[in-house]
Give the backbone structure.
Amino acid sequence: MAGPVWVHGELGPDGTLARIATETATAARDIADRAGTEAIGIVVAADPSGAAEELARFLPRVLAVTEPVSGARTAAAVAAERIAALARRDGIGYLVTGAGPEGRDVAGIAGALLDLPLLANAIALGSRGDGPTVDESAFGGKQLTTSSFTKSKGVITVRPNAVDAVPLDIPGRVEPADLDEPLALPVVTVVDRVSAEAAAQSIEEARVIVAGGRGVGGPDGFELLRELADALGGVVGATRAAVDAGWIPYAVQIGQTGKIVKPQLYLAMGISGAIQHKVGMQTAGAIVAVNRDPDAPIAEFADVLVVGDQAAVGRALLAALRDRSA
Amino acid sequence: MRIVVLSKPVPDPASGQERLTPDGRVDRGAAPAVINGNDEYALEAALKLAEARPDEEHEITLVAMSPESGRDAIRKGLAMGAHRAVMVIDPALGGSDWLATVRVLEAVLRTLEYDLVLAGADTSDGVAGVVGAAVATRVGLPYLSYAATIEPSDGRVRVNRLTATGHEVLEAPTPALITCTQALGAPRYPSLKGIMAARSKEIEVRSLADLGIDPATVGAEAAGTTVDEVRPPAERGATRVIRDEPEEAARQVVAFLAERRLI
Ligand SMILES: Cc1cc2nc3c(=O)[nH]c(=O)nc-3n(C[C@H](O)[C@H](O)[C@H](O)COP(=O)(O)OP(=O)(O)OC[C@H]3O[C@@H](n4cnc5c(N)ncnc54)[C@H](O)[C@@H]3O)c2cc1C
Ligand SMILES: Nc1ncnc2c1ncn2[C@@H]1O[C@H](COP(=O)(O)O)[C@@H](O)[C@H]1O
């Protein structure tokens, strides 16, 4: 029988299970079913029990690895080393992680330790025979590819929102898995953790993004975008022009050298749609743009373009959304 | 300080011409090569670290695995101020998977001396964002990722690592490998003097044989992954353009959102 499909039980900044882990778990279950093998989650933390129970809603079996140092060292390195140890002990078919910063770090380290091939940033998964196929988007969605592994083994990183998380009818079981061997990777110490104010939801996981560009006019203009995001249950994003102007932190920049996102709705306020921005968001489900220039490049790939002042249209939209929910 | 910058030549995203060949490789003829955006931020960070220590000696080395077509991009990195470059060029590398890249970069690093290795957080032609972590792991270097700041001092380095909701302050002994983001600051343009100086700087070319890597273990034949299909994305429907006054426009947008079940 093929080795198990391992799932990295990624944790959010607050130590609870990250939503991406429920999506990768669902993907891993499918891969394991087709390969006739088992999907197993791994949660590595100082106290893994809560997140492990949560992950077991999506996987028949979850290993909870208690690692007292995981707060003091980079979480990804500690998790990757433990995943590699378990994979060496119990075998491995595939390792599935998220494609955000944490998942990539785990994939890179574990992939190197286990000498596994890798397919990155899955936007969809399928199958051929008993092996998985991975759909990826090249150059920000200009072309799509379907790839597979030649030796029925590998690491897959999955983009947020690529898979709908489906819980099991009956939750799986959590087992402690304590590993005795000392951690051997070079130590990187976490000296401090700083949370930006009100950064509750990660932009890569958000289902709705209200993004602002130079046309928003300044930091105050982003207040309206925040209200719109709240009304739509989403988060605020930005172009590099808005970030470079210091109106909003780089953490929410979308594009070539920022985040790549795939929300269900992308509302673009005062954004021209330059190619470096487009590659970060053009695979969004629906794109609604507000721009006073009907010939802005974004007109070529938005589903809806409102020609007008973004502040005036934004205020009217906010009022209409509030009317609707009132 | 001795700093190595892992610099990947990629097709210029600004050209709008990037594409894959039908068998899924990056079409190097389609667009001119530039140094990957995040790697330019890494190079800029290296240059700033050197400039901040005018009393010390510095050597910034670019390392690239790339076909010959990447040479001009690397030359531009030298014009920005890097001191020298090592390019691994070998026909057997065509169609390599990520493990081959990791193996080659590891082998080059084993022949160099350095205090820091800087890489990009990810690449515009691959966007895997995994090579830095893997190379650090193979070479045995502390790995600090998604850097917004880099502060070396006394045999240690401190990095602000960007996270989804803020940042972590990381610290490790050097030598260490750090992956770099745009938050480090915009790259400089090469000066005329820099361009002139770059002409006489060395680009050392190495083959797989020079690195002691068996060509049969890299390239398309040895790859653990294959691209089975390349296709264009589904066409987005035509753009609906709304030119009405804000209230009416908002009403239509709400109707669109409701129709798509987004609200
Ligand atoms: C290496 C590199 C990497 C890059 N990476 C990124 C990246 O990751 N992300 C990114 O976004 N960019 C990136 N860029 C920058 C990119 O090229 C563009 O400069 C940037 O996306 C433009 O941002 P913008 O749309 O906000 O500004 P602009 O291009 O200036 O567009 C502003 C738009 O707002 C409209 N507007 C103005 N006022 C109003 C108003 N009152 N109401 C309505 N509309 C209005 C204008 O008509 C215009 O279309 C990168 C560039 C390089 C070279
Ligand atoms: N062929 C290469 N030559 C030099 N550096 C590379 C190469 N491939 C990847 N890298 C480095 O690894 C980083 C991450 O690459 P990737 O994981 O492919 O997105 C890049 O930003 C580079 O710094």
User: Anything to note?
Assistant: Chain B touches chain A through 89 residues (CB under 8 Å). Chain B has a mean pLDDT of 96.
